[in-house]
Amino acid sequence: QDKQEWDFVLVSDIHQMGSEKEIKRKKFLDELSKKGFTIKKIEDKKLFYGVRAPEWIFRKYQWLLRGPESRMQSPSDQHDVPVTTRIRIVNFILHNTVTPDLEKLRNLMKKKVFETAFPLHEREEKKLFIKEKWARWRDICYEQPIEKIRGYFGEKVALYFAWLGWYTYLLGIASVFGMLIFVIGITVLSSSQLSKEICKANTTIMCPLCDQKCPFWLLSDTCTYAKAGSITHMIDNEGTVLFAIFMAIWATVFLELWKRERAAVVTKWDLYQWDDDEEELAMELINNPLHEPRRYQHSYFRSTIVILLVLLMIAVLIGIAHALVIYRVVAMALFTQSSLEFLREHANTVAVVTGAVLHYLTIVIMTKVWSTLPRALLLSPEKPRTFSQRENNFTVKIFTFQFFTNFSSLIYIAFFLGRINGHPGNYVRVAGKWRLEECHPSGCITDLFIQMATITILKQTLSNFVEYLVPWMTYVHKKQKLPKKKNMILGEEEEAEDPCKQWWLSNYQLNEVHQFSLFDEFLEMVIQYSFTTIFVAAFPLAPVLAFINNLIEIRLDAIKMVHLRRRMVPRKANDIGIWLQVLEAIGILAVIGNGLVIAITSDFIPIQVYKYTYSPCTRGNSTALDCSAGYINYSLSTFRIQDFEPHMRLPEQLPDFARQGITEYRDYRNADDYSYTVQFWHVFAARLAFLILFEHVALCIKFIAAWYVPDVPHSVKNTILDKKHSKLHKGL
C-alpha cells in the first residue's frame, strides 16, 4: 500500500520472543485486528507497525453525526471523511482499545511495550505549505493559508493561527499609536522643566544610598538619569494616560473583532453549532457499542483540595518573588561597597538589571517545571469527563501559575518598591541587617521600565532562538543516529525492504508532540498579551516589540509543525476554548494595572497636585512660567544627619556641602518629627481619586465598545436563520 494510506504508526522496541512485553504487544495488535484494522510491520532496530482503520468505522461516524433529516437517506450515500477526521478517530480508538488484561495504549507505553504512536506527515501536502508561502522564513509578511492549515492540521490549529494572525494585525495599530506617543514624549520631555531643575540642583544634598560608608550625593548627579527617564517613560504628561485608556479600548475591540472573525470562519466551516461532547460520545460508541457514558460529577471535597493546592503553589511563587527582592537588597548593598568605581556609581541600575535577568531565568526554570509536571497530577483530583474539560482545567491552573511566575516580581516593583522601605533614621530592614532598596534616582517607574524591557527583550529574542534551536538540534541528532538495517529479528520473520520504511523512519526522527502541544503555543502568546497590556503605561513600546515578535512567531510555529515535529493529532473545534475568557480577564487586569501604575508608580499625580495647588501658577502672577517649576524642591524632605541610626556608618570625611548637617530625601515628611505632611495626604487623596475615576471611565468605555461591536456579524446570523428555515420548510 502507498505510504500515505496508513493512518497511524506504532513504534516498539524489539522484545524477546515469549517475553511479557512481546505478549502484551501481540494482544493489543490482536484487538485491533478484531476491529478490522489492517496492520503492516516494518523491522529495523525498532519495530514499526502501520495501522489503517476499516472504512465502516468512518461511515458509522458520519451516520451518527448527521442531522435527523440526513439519516432518512441511504447509509451508503456517504462522502469520504477528511484525513484530519480519519486521524482523530483512529487516535481515539487506539487510545481506548482495551486488551484482555484491561490495559490501554497509555498503560502499555508506561510499561515500554510501545514507545510511541503518531500519524504520518503527507509529503505532497508539506510541499504545498511551502508553495503557499507559509512554512518558510522569507515569506514572513504573506497572508496565512488558513483553509490549507485546517485541511492538514485540523480546525483547532487553524483557529490558533487565525487568532494569532488577527492579534498580530491589530497589534500593528497599537504599535503605531505607541510609537507616536513615544516620539511625542521625546520631543516634549527632552527639555522638560523637571529635568532642568534636577540638572541645576547642585546644592541639594541627598541621603546616602546604603549604610556602609556610602557617600552623600548631589541631586544634580542624576541629571543623565532624569533626562533618560523622562524620554523613556514619558511620565509627567497626559500622553501616558491617553495611551493606557487607548490600550484598554484596544484590548476590548480586539476581542470583539476576533469573536466576529471566529464566527464568520466557523460558519464557513459549518461548525458554528458543533458539539464536541456529541463527537466524543459518537467515537466511544464506534469503539465499543456497549459503552456507557461517564457522568458529569462534582465533588466539593476535590474542589477544595484543588483550591488548597493552587494556593500552595501561588505561595511558593510569591516566595520566589520575595527571594528576588532579597537578592536586589543584598546586591545593592554589595555593589555600593564594590572596589569597582562603575559598580559603586551605578549600583542601583546594576542591581535592577541583574535582578531582571534573574527574574527571566526564574521564568524559564519555572516554565520548564510546569511543562515537566505530569498532566495527571494536575487533573487527577477533579476527574474531568471529556478532553475539553481536561484541557480547560489544565489551562486555568497552568496559566495561573505562569501569571504569578511572570508578574509577582513586577507587581512588587510597581506598587511596593520604595513605599515600604521606611525613611532615613527608621529604615525597614531584611533580617535586621539590609535595608529595603529605594526607587531608582530618576523615579520608581524606571525600575519597572527596566524590568519590563529586560524580560520582554529576553523572552522575544533568547527564548525564541532556543524555541527554534532545540527542536532543530534534536531533529539533526536523531537523523545522525539513523537506525541501520538489522538482518535478524529475534522470534520475528524478517520483512523485505519496503518503500514505506524510509518515510516512517523520517517521521519517527521528528520531535515528539503530545495532546497539549498547542496549549504551549497559546500559553506563550497569552503571556505575551499580558505583558503588552497590563503594564503598558510603564513600557509603551511593548506593542511594537510584540508586533515584531509575532511576525517571527507565526513562521517559527509553522516551521516547527511542518518540518521539525511529528504531525499533531487534528482536533475539531469552533473556538479557541477557555483562552477567550482568560483574555477577557487580562483585559480587566490591564485597566486595573495601568490605573495603578499611573496613580501610584509614576509621578504624574504628584506633579498635577503641585501644578494646581502649590505652584506659582496658582497665584496667577506668572503666566509665562512653567507651572511645574519648583516641583523638585516641593517633593523633597529634610533630614538631620545626627538622627541617623546608630549602626549607620557615614564616610569618615564628609564633603564640604554635607558639613552643615542637613540632607534631603524624596518623601513628604515634616522636618521635626518626620511625620507625613499635609501635602502627602493631598497627593494620596488625588491618587485614590484618579484611580477610581480612571478605572470607572476605562471600564465604561470597554463595556460600551463591547456593546457597540456585536460578537456575531449579521451575515452569520442570517446564514444560520436561513438554514433553520430551510430545514423546517423541508420538514413541512
Features:
732 residues, mainly alpha, 2 domains, four-stranded antiparallel sheet, two-stranded antiparallel sheet
Short description:
Residues 149-720 form the Anoctamin transmembrane domain. It contains 25 helices and twelve strands.
Could you please describe the fold and organization of this structure?
This protein has 732 residues and is mainly alpha-helical. The chain folds into 2 domains: 8-120, no CATH class; 144-290 and 303-480 and 514-731, no CATH class. It is 59% helix and 6% strand. The protein is built from 25 helices and 12 strands. It has helices spanning 20-34, 55-64, 83-96, 105-110, 123-131, 146-153, 155-189, 193-200, 223-233, 238-268, 276-287, 300-336, 341-345, 347-372, 375-379, 387-415, 444-480, 499-508, 517-533, 542-564, 579-601, 604-614, 631-634, 678-708, 714-731, and strands at residues 8-12, 38-43, 47-52, 116-118, 205-206, 217-218, 422-423, 426-427, 429-430, 434-435, 636-640, 662-666. The protein has a 4-stranded antiparallel beta sheet with strand order 2-3-1-4, sandwiched between helices. A two-stranded antiparallel ribbon has the order 5-6. It has a two-stranded antiparallel ribbon with strand order 7-8. Helix 21 (579-601) packs antiparallel against helix 24. It is elongated. The two termini are 48 Å apart. 35% of the residues are buried. The model is unreliable at 68-73, 229-233 and 485-496 (pLDDT under 50).
